Amino acid sequence: MAYLTLRGINKIYPNGFHAVHDFNLEIEKGEFIVFVGSSGCGKSTTLRMIAGLENISNGEFYINGERANEKGPRERGVAMVFQSYALYPHMTVYDNLAFGLMLQGVDDDVIEKRVYSTAEILGLTDYLERLPRELSGGQRQRVAVGRAIIRKVDIFLMDEPLSNLDAKQRVTMRSEITQIHRETGATTIYVTHDQTEAMTMADRIVVMKDGYVQQVGTPYDLYFNPVNMFVAGFIGEPPMNFIEGQLENGKIRMENNIIDLSEVADRSVLEKYEGSEVAFGFRPEAVRIADKSGDAMSLTGVVELVELLGDNTNVYVDMQGVNCILKVDPHISMETDTEVTFDIPYESIYLFDKQTEKRIKLKEKKD
């Protein structure tokens, strides 16, 4: 049995609001799981149910095979790091780290040893006598993480711990939290709205929308094999481009472009969706400019905006009212109000049923 099991978990508030619907997940010991989704999707509510801070309305929650629905936070053996650092402002870094152990009645010499070893891991040794107000945001976040790991529990829960940091601090703390996870081996569940954090840190990602799980998988699975338009558009930066239209004779017709899917999809697939509203998808970074190497579809648009970002250039293209983003080599010169032709490799093409938003498999499995 998995170390953590959530089976048919629901959260319904007294006012009738259904925040989480039929959440099912099995988490192995030592995994780093990330819940990701837009604000209000239910990810933090699910984390709080795991922590014991919210009651579970329906469903079963097990820790190491033992039902934990009625257990309090202390009994569950979890440590939680919040978005707000929740440090005691009148206590030094040393005392903030030591406080939880003091409440547990741990001997002073053991506390001192653990505080110094934790501070060394987090690079806080030189700041133990400082108060929180004397620290940077990144240093305060390290203290908050330290208060969790010093307890040596088996389960870490982190609720958007990096959202108050600037971009550079977030990059640093991402790598530090990942390294701490490797060193401690604790099962970690991490909540974020930032898909970059999810992609760079997770063993597996749980994508949520409106209280429902959309897809669970590795970062690779979610990027290359999204099950629906929401996951495809949420994972990846810039997001996937979508061109919507009706499928007629295996083609989506635009004013100056014809998206011919006959070279990409099986005839049986195209026949099944003939006359249906579909969405053609491709990732901005998949395109090739002036590359006629074959096995690709060519499309044309007008350049509206060019953003040089250093390692790449984002080119915003208008295709008869459909706006797309192309992520290209920064050395490729582009000018606004000029026409650009770009190629999309066949293996980088996606198709979705517009009505259900589910992905359409372009090739049917052969027996």
How would you summarize this macromolecular structure in one to three sentences?
With 367 residues, the protein is an alpha+beta fold. The protein contains ten helices and 20 strands. Helices cover 26% and strands 33% of the residues.
Give structural notes.
- The chain has 367 residues and is of the alpha+beta class.
- It has 2 domains: 4-230, Rossmann fold; 238-353, OB fold (Dihydrolipoamide Acetyltransferase, E2P).
- It is 26% helix and 33% strand.
- The strands form 4 sheets. The protein has a 6-stranded mixed β-sheet with strand order 6-7-8-3-9-10, with helices on both faces.
- Helix 3 (93-103) packs across helix 4 (108-122), helix 3 packs parallel to helix 5 (137-149) and helix 5 (137-149) runs parallel beside helix 6 (167-184).
- The two termini are 33 Å apart.
- The model has no long low-confidence stretch (mean pLDDT 92).
Q: Which fold name fills CATH's third level, the topology of the largest domain? A: Rossmann fold
Which percent range fits the helix content?
Answer: 25-40%
How confident overall, as mean pLDDT?
Answer: 92
Number of domains: 2
> Uncertain spans, ≥5 residues at pLDDT below 50?
none
Using the coordinates above, name the CATH class of the largest domain: Alpha Beta
Termini separation:
33 Å
The radius of gyration over CA amounts to 25 Å
What is the 3D form? globular
Largest sheet: 6 strands, mixed
